[in-house]
Structures are given as C-alpha cells and as structure tokens.
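Q: What does the assembled structure look like for these inputs?
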Amino acid sequence: MLLIDCPYCGPRPELEFRYGGEAHIARAAEPAKVDDDNWTAFLFWRSNPKGLHFERWRHTSGCGRFFNSARDTVSDVIVKTYKAGEPKPDLNGYKAEAKP
Amino acid sequence: MGGIPVKFSAFALLKQALSGEAWPEQWRSPEPKPAYDVVIVGAGGHGLATAYYLAKEHGIRNVAVIEKGWLGGGNTGRNTTIIRSNYLWEESQKLYEHAVKLWEGLSQELNYNVMYSPRGVMMLAHTEHDIQSAKRHIHANRLGGIDNEWLTPEQAQEFCPILNIGRDIRYPILGAALQRRGGTARHDAVAWGYARAASALGVDIIQNCEVKGLRRAPSGAMTGVETTKGFIGARRIGVVAAGHTSVIMQMADVRMPLESYPLQALVSEPVKPVMPCVVMSNTIHAYMSQSDKGELVIGAGTDAYTSYSQTGGLHISAHTLDAICELFPVVRRMKMLRNWGGIVDVTPDRSPIIGKTPVEGLFVNCGWGTGGFKATPGSGNVFAWTLAKGEPHPINAPFSLDRFCTGRLIDEAAAAAVAH
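A:
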C-alpha cells in the first residue's frame, strides 16, 4: 500500500485516496474545433510510461481535494506531490531507486 | 530446422520410462539469424500461438519469437487459467468462441496435454443489477449460439457444493450464470505446447533477448528490431508484449490507448478435491477454482494505479480473501502459499486491440487486460492471419486500433471476473 503525501494534509495511507489517472491532459479550450484525432488523443491515448508518471489523486477520505503526484511506476516510489494547477515539476535529475 | 521432438503417446512414455534416459529438450534455443520474414515480440502464450499458426496454417516458417525473459514467464505463467466465451457483444462472442473451439482440440493438435478441462464457469449474482446483467448476457449468448444458463441459488450450490447460499451474508447469492463449456487449462503447458510445436515447424524461439529499438526505413516502414542480441531484420513485426506494449510501441512513436496495472492472484496449500468448477463474482471481486495439484487458485483485483512493479498492494489480495471466506466458509482456516502480480494492459473499452498500426509492417496484439489467457489459441490464430495477409481476419477486424478514433468501441466492462 502506498503512503501518499497529500499537499494539504500530509502523509496518509493509500486507502484514503482515489486515483484519478494521468495528469496534465488539458481539455481543448474550443471543443467544437477539435478533430477526431485530437479527441482520440484527449480521451484515450495515455503515456503509460515505465518510469516517472504524473498522475492525479483525490484525498476522498480526507480534505477531498485533487492534487498531482510524480511516481516511479517501476518501484512505485512517489517522488513528489504537488497541488493541482501547478506546472509539471522538472524531475530530469531523478534516478530510479531499487525497490526496498 | 532442428529435428522433430518425440511424439508423445502411451508407448513413448513407457519406452522412455524403461530406457531411463532424460527426455530431450522440447524446443530448440538457437541464436538469432540476421533476418526473418516475421519477428514476434513476446514469447507468451499469445505470441507463441501466433508463431505456431503462422507456420502451420500460412506456411510462413522463417519466424522468430523473441522474449525479454523466459518463455511463458509473464502473464501466461501468472494468470488463473479461466476459459469461457460468454461475452456480451457479438464481436467478442465470435473472438472468444473461436478460442474455445480451438481449446477443445488443442491437446490433440499440439500432441501436448494442455489439460483443458471444461468443468463449467459459474458467475454469481448478488444484487438486482447483477441478475439483470447476467440474464442479459445469457440471452445475448443464446442468440450468438453460445451456451449460458441461469441457475437459482439452490442449483448453484448443487453445482458447487461448498458455496454458501445463506441469506444472512453481506452479499447473499441471488442466482448465477453458468457456462458449462467454460473451464480451465494448464497455463504453462499451453506455452510449452505451442513452443514445442512451433519449434518443430522451424520457428526460432529466442529467450533472454530484449527489444531495445524498432528500426524503420526512410519511408517509415519497419526493417527490424534492435535487441540485446543485436539487430534482427524483419519487414513484419508483431508486438505481443502485454503490459509492456506501450513501452515497445513508443519506440516507433505510436501512442496507445493502454494503461498497465498490476493484477494479483494467489494459491492456497493443496487439498483434496473440493471445488468441481470455476466460480466468479464480479461484484465482490473474487474468483476461485482448484488446480489438479489441489491448490485453490484465487484471482484478486487490480491496483488503482498504473504500475510495472509485478507485485500490487496486499490490501487488494486481503479484500478478495474477505469475499472468498464469505462465499466458501469451508476454506476459512486454509493457508495461502503464494501470491504474485502480473502487469496487464487495459484498454478503455476492456476489449483487445489486434491488427495493424499506423506504421507499415508493424502489427499489434494487446489490450487483453485482465482476461487474456482464455483467448490464447484464438488470438494467435487470427493474429497469424493478420501478419500473413497484412489484413485482419473477419473475427479480429472490429478489434482495430482505430476504433478509438471512429468511436466503434466494443464495451466489455465485464470482460474480467473483477469489476473495474
């Protein structure tokens, strides 16, 4: 079970949270102008990386707020959590750690 | 071509037992040739079946199956071996029924006992919605010529005597849908049987060979794969890499509608036969059968988040065991021997993707999510057709990658035994 550091409440067990899928997928400002390919990308394409993944969580059994996390999908280590609306953090220096 | 393996028969078994010699290796382990007609990425059940049918039905024998780890060591060796075809939509029914028909003759076809056992798959209903959904499936299946029948709680208990049909449990059993032709098979034997048969037809199975890149001509067409054993040329490449499909497709800049999740399973200590069938419950996240070794084989759910960790959270297994203990009180004091996770690639509509990609010469068979084992023979059969002809077989044509653009999704939200 993950220990997730809610930016508002601090570290809490995974059971208090709901996963919200990949983060930073913005809905088009003018949906009527979006073609099928771009709708496909928005609705269905996911980066699904083996490594750092930027994802949404909601602290459903706590403050109730959405926030984002950067997690290594190989070790499941959460490298950073940050508030929704903040830009994707620069984690280029992050090196995957072996899972304890 | 490296020799036909011993044909298994009662006589061969007796002869081998009396001779005292070890059995010869069942498939060759060659070094890769510089080029092949077709390279298949991933030596799981689906990839090996694809190679077998390419050689057997389409005469394409200059084929390599390359595998990062060992043969059948991914989801083929990690699943709970359930076979059934009682899906809701016509497209899915045709695909999974094609597989069931192949399962029925597979041991004979491969001369390898895959221990296919049509012992019946019973899916429980615990709520009014479950009943409606199960009956809708039953009627849809009947129209599609697939067996599926409704059982009362008493009939369900008659079919599986250790089932608790008491009305005082948290999710009482209100009925069940039963596919009698559903059942199980021996997962390792499926991989081994296809590997042996494919190898005998000239297919090279190359283990410990990881794909590092996909090489393309200036036109964009595939020319081969970069691997840890060097470059292997091929104009047709079939990616059958399950949870790692997104990683491979990224190498050709093809984005996929896939997310990879850990799916867990566990087995108990072995006991005498108590469980004559497979029982599944979508609603309370549990399914169970008994292997011929006597272990109770239990399937749990996926974690909430994407991961490649091949483990999964303990609370997921514990949640399933809560349900198992209530459904089958007789197992409450049993010990679990092992639990493990596999990485499953899940599509938005819970149906697989089998077909062409935007890249010429690159084909994909993926997205089987939490329920791919049952389809192994059918999946390999239609994917081999697709690789041989360059066009999908009518059965897999609806399962194209571009359905996510056209909107012709095949919504099988109940594809697995677990609710999503």
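The CA atoms of residues 132 and 411 of chain B lie 17 Å apart.
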